[in-house]
Amino acid sequence: MEVTFSALKSLPMIEPGDNLVEIIIANIKRNGNTLQNGDILVIAQKIISKAENRYLTLSEITPTLRAKEIAEEVHKDPRYVQAVLDESIDVVRKKPGVLIVEHRLGFIHANAGIDQSNIQHPDSDERLLLLPKDPDTSAQKIRYAIAAQLDVDVAVIINDTMGRAWRNGTLGLAIGIAGIAPIDNRIGKNDLFGRELKVTATAIADELAAGASLVMGQTTEKNPVVLVRGYPFPNKTALETGTPPLIRDKAQDLFR
Amino acid sequence: MEVTFSALKSLPMIEPGDNLVEIIIANIKRNGNTLQNGDILVIAQKIISKAENRYLTLSEITPTLRAKEIAEEVHKDPRYVQAVLDESIDVVRKKPGVLIVEHRLGFIHANAGIDQSNIQHPDSDERLLLLPKDPDTSAQKIRYAIAAQLDVDVAVIINDTMGRAWRNGTLGLAIGIAGIAPIDNRIGKNDLFGRELKVTATAIADELAAGASLVMGQTTEKNPVVLVRGYPFPNKTALETGTPPLIRDKAQDLFR
Q: A211 and B214: CB-CB below 8 Å?
């Protein structure tokens, strides 16, 4: 088996209101390529958020007393902390320099995934970029628009850079999914020797998101869309899709 | 940028004492390919462990009282629990069906990575397969042997399937590394707009391990070696290598 991760070349900077699907399709055509059934597009969260105008202006945020108290503890701007809290259900851990929350979408994410770097604006220090409002829906819309225009069924994964427990360094992980099951569930299937495999539930959407992250590089502005070709995933349309299966139920999570 | 993950075709089953490097080089030649400087080989832990004869026979293990007590709590064979404890520094979490430990190598790993499935033996229920004794050294030996025989500098990553906090499904992650920095550390480098990136330390070895896992498939016996080509990583020889930088210091880990 051979799987190829290719960055789309020379995409323009994305601005609020941009039609990402048009831009992606035009780019692929310009580079003499085409989309095929079974292709997977992995798209950096940042450009989805930009196209959806998920900006906030720091100076327009009024922090609550709670945000001010947390900001003092974690050494962050109270207005930034307010934005993080507004995107979150719960604070999971905090210490100086660290604010880890349960995002309203269910992800455990430092700073609710709100980023200040790589935002193109003269006074970018003043702007924040939130995660997309509903990344699964964003992914599904892109998938449907591509199907409508090119008559191909591609899967779409929106990835973001996330930290994790126990290990240093971030990984690209899936925050929005359409057209592919997030988990390849082989519990109970037989292994090569006919012995029952007890638990093999592979987070394939996260593995795809991580592999694509390598090609995006550090500044995802440069290569924010990655075409994955050659990965055979089963029966796309019938599968449970979207990110919810990736999120461990709070009651089952030993590390909250 | 384009990165390709290719599984080596039709590798034989690996037995204790097998010379993995000879087998891999012969396989690549037979398939009309060759290794190049900058290639990365991702190798499934299981075949490293097999070649290194890291088997234990369940019937030869005598569980301690502590292993018996934990076994009762987690509903596992006390001899299996004893093997897990023998490979571990500490029990991190346990509940029925779940035993998460700090492996002696530093990884937080369910069952210390000891696996019972996919072990080729008539009475495979009776055999356990431990992680390699020192996976970084195993990776380095393979790297050096390839350099000696083919005069190419390849990086080697040994990966294993691991669970994580907060999210369901396993990922392929790096447990042994040679010839590539585990983390691409861009803290303080400028982003596209000259603004200082605050924290971007990407666990590239884990992203490579995860991408390779897709190609290995569920039963890593089938495709246990993946050649990664096209990923430009900096200056291989001068880098800090091995897995220690991936392991978060216990005192800094908010999720122990």
A: yes
